[in-house]
Amino acid sequence: MEIALYPIGIVRSERTSKEDADWGVGVSTIELDPALSEGLEGLEQFSHAVIVFFLHEGEVFTPPRIKRRPREREDMPLLGVFAQRGKVRPNPIGVTTAKIVSVEPGRLIVSGLDAIDGTPVLDIKPYFSAFDHADDAAAPEWVDRLMEGYF
Asked: How far apart are CA 82 and CA 147, in angstroms?
């Protein structure tokens, strides 16, 4: 089966480094394909949006990378790729819930988007609490340590 995706927009940001820290600092602008700009209409009614993007500068996934330590940190457990949120994946797709700063014609300005300048955006969805949370969500203790300083 072949799957074809195309970017609906591009991230514009001062952030050009892929370092996993301080992603909550600053804002990003998603510049939409002009043919899709009307798709933003109504998004200003929401506080947050779920941004789906292609990790275009990520490391290439190879089968030996199916298990690794998150961020290669020795204090983290050895885990399968599907038990972590790292950028080295079989399909390098990122998903982040970002705060909407403003919606302008053809542009969405957000904060808290962990994507660098030039990142292709695949989709934008409004955050719906009915879909985007889990009442009984649980995670292992190492996740809190891993996320210190990320946002």
From this structure: 17
